[in-house]
Amino acid sequence: MKDETQRGVLGVLIVGHGSRRAEANEDVRKAAVRIGENGGFVLVEPAFLEIEHPNVHEGFERLVQRGASDITVHPYFLSPGRHTRGDIPLKVSEAASCYPGINYRISEPLSAHPLVIEASVERIFESINHETSARVSGSQHLSRVGFRAERGTVYLVGAGPGDPGLLTVKALALLESCDLVVYDYLVNPDVLSYVHASVERVYVGKVGGGRHTPQRQINHLLVQHARTGKRVVRLKGGDPFLFGRGGEEAEALVAAGVPFEVVPGISSALAVPAYAGIPLTHRGMSSSVAVITGARSGDGRFESGAFAQLASVETVVVLMGVANLREIANELVNSGRSVETPAAVIRWGTYNGQQTVTGTLGSIAIDSERTGMRAPAVIVVGEVVRLRERLSWFEQILAVVDEEELEATLAVAC
Length: 414
Fold this sequence. Notes:
Cobalt-precorrin-4 Transmethylase, domain 1, Methyltransferase, Cobalt-precorrin-4 Transmethylase, Domain 2, disordered N terminus, 5-stranded parallel β-sheet, about 15% strand, single chain, 5-stranded mixed β-sheet, Rossmann fold
């Protein structure tokens, strides 16, 4: 980012999430207009992170074309974790790289603003009696069955693939009873709502190509806080022992003499294909599955030869591989797979913004690039991908919900 003292013509980019629901996207556009009017900003454009256009690059470009040379990017009610620390900085940086003379900055999200908090408190008090009794009852039950964090212990906990409903009962109990949460980029911020407001939260997530906390520093953090007697939850997306470096952290805890427990989570390797309507095994179609990373540890590059032994495996699931999709497809074909083998890429699986692209090993890289698919995504290769045509249940539910909400909105408007 350029020196903020070198300011020119101000432009404001209001970035919303993007939804299949037209009225949700229209809300962002109307908010951009109101922000411009109330703030006296002449150059204001809306943009969207997902699904809808203009995307961030297009919105940034429009402001430049309208004469802006100093752009403020405002995340409109986006999560302070995954989006404002990861997606927006990366996308804005990519857009700004096309215009070297443009100065830009990214504002803080609204989520922790005092006025937003006040409004939230007002809503909470409307239903607090019912909610409190339900939560107390649930916590008492969890305590009775022994799922409660102990002092001086580190819990390596899998947060699941994203949908908060896939969090395990034990993981929920530990989140409700811990003193410190150390969490990653792929942990859904909604999962953190189960953590008491007084609990310290430490973000150590890594975004591909961006800043991250070194593993050695994370290990030291866990040991240090456990030795002070804190109940520490190390919260990881998916499962802590499947490409989550949970084993490395467990080794560090053993070496330091710190007690720990592992709480498995539902891996995206299993859940995301299921939410896309793709069973990893199916009688007569697949009886073997391989789960492999598509990026080399350390620099994220493709490791040639890693897929050479997988030609005989009927279903291949690739995590962290979308950036190397073309190389992965080519190596599988060169290793004996048919170029017509079905393949799928699923982005933000189990979230409401889930997107799926299907094709073959010969076409999937081009299809994925054309659709704008990028991390986080899961790749599935094998004949079972064909079943998605009949078994795509989750995205059908989203479509029905979106349609019902739109009908309800139109009915109220009329």
